[in-house]
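Dataset card, provenance and construction

Sequences and ligand SMILES were collected as paired inputs. For each pair, a complete structure of the chain with the small molecule in place was predicted and serialized as structure tokens. The example below shows a pair involving NAP. Curators did not alter the output after generation; any descriptive sentences attached to a record were derived from the structure itself.
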Amino acid sequence: MKIGIIGAGNVGTGLTRSLVPKGHTVMLSYSRDAAKMAEVAKDLGAKTGSVADAVAFGEVVILATPYTVNEEALKEAGNPASGKIIWDCTNPLKPDFSGLLIGTTTSAGEQTAALAPWARVVKAIPPFAERLHADHLEIAGEKPGVFICGNDPEARRVIARLVWTSAPNLWVANS
Ligand SMILES: NC(=O)c1ccc[n+]([C@@H]2O[C@H](COP(=O)([O-])OP(=O)(O)OC[C@H]3O[C@@H](n4cnc5c(N)ncnc54)[C@H](OP(=O)(O)O)[C@@H]3O)[C@@H](O)[C@H]2O)c1
């Protein structure tokens, strides 16, 4: 599957590390240091491009940015074809990690859906990036769990299959 990733940090590169060996083609985007992103992408067997390139390229688009820059990043997507799937990995954390930026009347996934009306958004917070970059995912012998949440059943199935490539336990729920 073709996968565009917005955000080439710990999560974006960690997921690239598990997806490329499983035969997926990955394009990374949205780093403030294009040379560093190109070097990391080369090591991981991925391509690089602009956000618009990655969104146009991907059948699935992984959003792996700090929550505070989601709006700015998604604006750079332009006007993509509708129906693409966004795998939203972002946590709406305050920059100092002291709590959440949004409360319980909405969610980060709903905010992403509002920013990207062209997309079918699936929320699935992946395991800690430290584990994605390690040689196994287990913590104290246990697989991490990933909850999968979204309104579109087919989109949830697609993301569940991708999450499954890194073999955590899965919980799937409607939002
Ligand atoms: N880390 C984890 O264990 C983990 C686990 C689950 C979910 N998450 C969530 O996943 C998302 C990404 O986390 P991460 O740990 O991968 O973050 P990160 O390492 O800081 O990576 C963020 C990426 O966004 C890019 N970016 C572009 N413009 C930016 C700006 N103005 N400010 C900050 N970054 C900018 C960064 O560019 P540069 O390359 O120039 O830095 C980097 O490529 C977050 O929402 C986080 O809460 C993280």
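Derived descriptions for this record:
The two ends are 25 Å apart (CA to CA).
The chain has seven helices and eight strands.
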